[in-house]
Design brief:
heterodimer, A: about 65% helix, B: alpha+beta, two-stranded antiparallel sheet, 8 helices, elongated
Chain lengths: ~290, ~240
């Protein structure tokens, strides 16, 4: 699949934002005064910034409000609802922290749960697609949730929690690669099943339907850059999970320490998300003899 | 709504005969020609006369070489378009309701005025039946020529999809699969019509007819008896000597 920058930004930043907001909402970190304004602002900024990045992926973004209409069947629509509900639920908690109103935390906890629901809905946009076997697996939602939790904890500077969740992320990333590599074969799609000609014999492409490129080749049959997949996997696991772990274990707690951990985590997260798309093979590639 | 209808009154679709398709691409041209000026926005081309031309087509014709275990490879031309699936994944993923399946005849359509161009439906389709129009930013797909098949301004023989109407070898048939006595239902029953990628669980309406079994002669070649010449005389002696060296 084509790793569109808008979609990578959308999933990485909104995931990090909602993970961070969940910790704030739940009360794991309770900032006060101006600091609260800044910290909640970062959470909202990441979540909203990520969500608006997704609009650059649209052909007709002016009709984006219509995307709220099909929540009964579409995960994209559910994600739109979940994100808006979450941001509204958490607003009074942010206000309370900022102005020191001392309002009860219950609604914040509900908002924290909704952060999880939002990230889950985002992941299901991809996990629901049977035509991309690598994504169609329970490890996809687990991966998105794991990134959100660990990213949130790292950004919050909660060293112990961050280390614990980062190690978890490393395991989930590895599981994602392990299961992902086996999904295409497990799905059972082949050139023989795609054409139905397997009963005659082995199928090979004789001639392509068009000599130039088209939308399918650009969007779904992205084969560039897989050469370095193994190196990128290492970078993803090292930078996103073990980098912040090492930083928190070795360095004293300071704003710079947190920033360094976040920078490393984001580097790994972008590498992992780029791979998430670039490595994912769509079954339509079978018609073109490509994967 | 992008909920799928439980069952449709009719199940309109195509039968593609892989035995008779000659890969002439006439269906591709006829499809582009009709749909360029019919339902929805025109099928745009980008850089059509440049170094890297590209454009939207709703029909693509592939060619495959199929190698049996014994015998020569066969070339099989393979038209590919929307299969108007009963369990269409492209419909349920749509966040806006632009992508829908009609209750009355099962045709899968895109309401372009509600399409935000997110491309998720094209991702969900295993068959590559949907292509995004780069100019209009909306998704294009086969409409089964919905603006021909019910069009009373056209002579009756033209009220079928453009690809079917134009096919010079009759490799394409249009009809109602819900009616067991329709031409398409009978063809599927008689020729063993099959689904593409059944493992995807999409239950396509369109069916493909496999190529008929080719005749195979008992002996390898008409010239075979002549090839088994036993050399005699000097040539025979030479043959034996050279064989021993």
């Amino acid at each position: 699949m084509h790793p569109a920058p808008s979609v990578i930004l959308f999933t990485v930043l909104s995931g990090l934002g909602f993970g961070f907001l969940a910790l704030l909402g739940w009360g794991v970190v309770i900032p006060q005064g101006v600091q609260a304004f800044l910290v909640w602002g970062i959470g909202y900024g990441l979540a909203v910034g990520g969500l608006s990045a997704s609009a650059f992926h649209l052909g007709n973004p002016q009709r984006a409000l219509l995307a709220f209409s099909q929540w009964r069947s579409s995960w994209l629509s559910r994600e739109a609802w979940a994100s808006v509900i979450t941001l509204i639920l958490l607003a009074p908690v942010a206000l309370s922290d900022w102005l020191g109103l001392g309002w009860p935390r219950g609604i914040g906890m509900a908002g924290a749960v909704m952060c999880g629901v939002t990230v889950l809905a985002t992941s299901m946009i991809y996990a629901q697609i049977k035509a991309v076997p690598r994504w169609h697996h329970w490890v996809t939602p687990l991966l998105f949730l794991s990134f959100a939790c660990s990213g949130g904890a790292i950004l919050a500077g909660e060293a112990r929690l961050a280390v614990l969740l980062s190690v978890g992320l490393a395991v989930v990333l590895w599981l994602g690669f392990f299961f992902g590599d086996r999904q295409f074969a497990a799905r059972g799609a082949s050139m023989e099943s795609a054409t139905g000609l397997g009963a005659i014999g082995r199928v090979a492409v004789f001639e392509l339907p068009h000599t130039g490129g088209n939308y399918l080749l650009r969007e779904m049959i992205f084969v560039v850059g897989r050469k370095h997949a193994m190196k990128l996997r290492m970078i993803a696991i090292l930078a996103a999970a073990f980098g912040p772990t090492a930083v928190f274990v070795l360095l004293p707690m300071h704003v710079v320490t947190v920033l360094l951990a976040v920078a490393l985590h984001l580097l790994g997260a972008f590498a992992a998300r780029w791979l998430f798309f670039a490595e994912a093979e769509h079954v339509v590639g079978l018609y073109y003899g490509k994967r | 709504m992008t909920m799928l209808p439980g069952a449709t009154e009719k199940r309109l679709g195509l039968v593609v005969d892989l035995d008779t398709c000659v890969g002439c691409q006439a269906c591709v041209t006829a499809c582009k020609g009709w749909n360029d000026q019919g339902y929805g926005v025109a099928l745009s081309d980008q850089n059509p006369y440049g170094a890297e031309p590209s454009g939207v087509f709703l029909y693509r014709v592939h060619s495959y070489a199929v190698q049996p275990v014994d015998g020569l490879a066969q070339t099989i031309n393979f038209p590919r378009s929307c299969l108007h699936c009963e369990d269409a994944p492209c419909v349920t993923v749509c966040p806006t309701g632009a992508s829908y399946k009609r209750v009355e005849d099962g045709i899968v359509l895109v309401n372009e005025s509600a399409c935000i161009g997110c491309g998720l439906c094209a991702w969900a389709c295993p068959y590559g039946a949907r292509e995004m129009d780069q100019d209009a930013g909306v998704m294009k797909k086969c409409t089964l020529c919905v603006d021909r098949i019910y069009n009373e301004n056209l002579p009756e023989e033209d009220r079928e999809p453009a690809c079917v109407r134009t096919c010079p070898t009759n490799a394409r048939h249009f009809g109602d699969f819900a009616d067991p006595d329709s031409k398409v239902s009978k063809l599927v029953a008689a020729r063993g019509g099959y689904d593409l990628m059944p493992e995807m669980g999409t239950r396509p309406t369109n069916k493909y007819l496999p190529p008929r079994v080719k005749d195979r002669r008992a002996e390898a070649s008409l010239l075979a008896p002549l090839l088994d010449i036993e050399a005699k005389g000097f040539a025979g002696w030479l043959d034996r000597v050279l064989g021993k060296i």
